[in-house]
């Protein structure tokens, strides 16, 4: 990946459809999420469309799906296919994998293979959608592999648009995405880089405390327009956490162009902007080393 050809790196982009037209979520969840985000653009982009979209904007994208097969009953998109296809767009795409933590030993072995055979550069977890407490020691063998392979783990935190407005939120529990659960994981795996995705509403102060306290924990700013960021998050980004906060859009529910336009209007110091938009991600993703 030629970093000089890039102005920004978006660390949070969802592949929602594969080449056969299979979708990452069932229709009810997709429609509820699109309504929650008032998304008027295509809610189910393929990897190829994502690559075109980002290439045209001189921006790299970390792409992934979420394997929540056990919790939702909906078959997941293949992270192997995503990673293999992303390799054809290596100028702009950085593939992350997803395994279902409930798959136990198979998930651990698969995570290892995704890194060693498919070139996956990190993993995405969505504790609410996948229905698991990230600090449950049953899932620790999974983190051991990620720490050994030196790839980051990105966890959804806080409120979610998935299930929003549906009876019982379709059974999706928000408490799994309390960032405090990740404080345990970060403490027990100091070698593992953890990214807490999104302003972690309603636990923003917790997220800021964890990222301040743990050298191995970062925050991505995806899923919200910068216009609505909690003020303490903006303050922390300008000061204590300037090297720990990352640009993410949560495409397709928010486009990078909308996010970037709103970020330009946010009260962020000039010298912090390039850290957030690109430099911090280069470090977290290990793109400057030989592996890119
Ligand atoms: Zn996400």
Describe the structure.
It is a single chain. By secondary structure, the protein is an alpha/beta fold. It has a single domain (3-285), classed as Alpha-Beta Barrel (TIM Barrel), CATH 3.20.20. Helix content is 37%, strand content 11%. The protein contains 12 helices and 8 strands. The protein is globular and about 45 Å long. The mean pLDDT is 95. The protein binds zinc ion.
What key phrases describe this protein's structure?
single chain, 292 residues, alpha/beta, TIM Barrel, 5-stranded parallel sheet, 12 helices, 37% helix, globular, binds zinc ion, 4-hydroxyphenyl-beta-ketoacyl-CoA hydrolase
Write the layout of secondary structure elements.
Layout: E1 8-14, H1 27-36, H2 47-55, E2 59-64, H3 69-72, H4 79-86, E3 93-95, H5 105-116, E4 123-125, H6 127-130, H7 140-149, E5 153-156, H8 180-188, E6 194-197, H9 204-213, E7 217-220, H10 231-238, E8 245-246, H11 256-264, H12 270-285
Helix pairs in contact: 5-7
The structure holds zinc ion.
Residues 12, 14, 156, 197, 250 line the site of zinc ion.
